[in-house]
Write a structure and sequence with these properties.
This protein has 334 residues and is of the alpha/beta class. It has 2 domains: 11-248, P-loop containing nucleotide triphosphate hydrolases (Rossmann fold, 3-Layer(aba) Sandwich), CATH 3.40.50.300; 254-333, Alpha-Beta Plaits. It has 12 helices and 14 strands. It has helices at residues 11-19, 71-78, 100-103, 121-130, 136-149, 165-177, 195-210, 222-226, 246-253, 267-274, 297-310, 323-333; strands spanning 24-27, 29-43, 46-64, 86-91, 94-95, 106-109, 183-187, 214-219, 231-236, 239-245, 258-264, 280-285, 289-294, 315-320. Strands 1, 2, 3, 4, 5, 6, 7, 8, 9 and 10 form a 10-stranded mixed sheet that branches. It has a 4-stranded antiparallel sheet with strand order 12-13-11-14, with helices on one face. Helix 5 packs across helix 6. 41% of the residues are buried.
Amino acid sequence: MSSPAPTSDTPAAAAKKGAATSEVTRVGRGDVVIAARKLSYWYGQVIGVNDISIDIGQGVVGLLGPNGAGKSTLLKCLTGQLRPATGMTTLGGERVWNNAAAFAKLGFVPEQDAFYEEMSGRAFVTHLTRLQGFSKSDAATLAEEAIATVSLSEQAHRPIREYSKGMRQRIKIAQALAHRPQVLFFDEPLTGTDPVGRRTIIDLIRKLGDKGRTVVVSSHILHEVEAMTSDIVLINRGRVLADGNIYRIREMIDEHPHRIYVECESPRKLASLLSAFDDTLELSFTERGFFVSTSEPDLAYSRIASLSVEHKLTLHALTSSDNDLSAVFRYLVS
């Protein structure tokens, strides 16, 4: 008995449809370091990555898309953490899936924490480095080097449970750096960090790219990616929608109001100060902070920072929603 023809909402149908339309996205500098061909991955009947083919060279590449776009799933397929339903990923021509030699050339910073909370930061990084096959003494040396790179040497003796969100992010980065991988993947690395921690991580990622590493960073916030690189890939619903220079994408996004969320001491005072500016379009309050809609996002971010310093209003959070990106994605899809 023959199998029924695939319907339009099944994984088989999606793969068949994508096979005829897949194009290779090329990002980064120089030779191709990591490549994927016709990658697809499903969670049951829900598609996470849909027929993506991509070549990634050296430098920093931003993977930009709203929450649920498929960014994390794509990163896990590229790093061999998930076996794609179709397609494959190669690093230097070698297949990544189930290949220990390829894994040793990759570093991964996950969005979600997965720590042994009672371990010190130093012990955590050293232990994971030993799992890469290094001797005890070599692992300790490499761990110290990585911890110093993320400016945590003075806090490395403390248990991770005592770390702030920013410190936890940095110790995750240290474990990804310690074995000196060729390619690094960062999944939403700035989530929950304060402005100082955000700047530290952005500077580190840029330096890694400048030194010739291949660095792929996912985010749903445009200005975060823009601070690291001008080379981006836009992804939504598991598919690549656009790629190339971020300034071209920025022009489209700037046509839409940009929404920023602020938490600080005396939020109504800071909101009142912002209301005096013409580019402030709307203000709305939450229990702990407020949203500001602006037509000049770059100016608004710098203004919020300077006003908080000038009026001694400590900032607790400064983030962007992905509403502006969603508008661009709707435009691209249409």
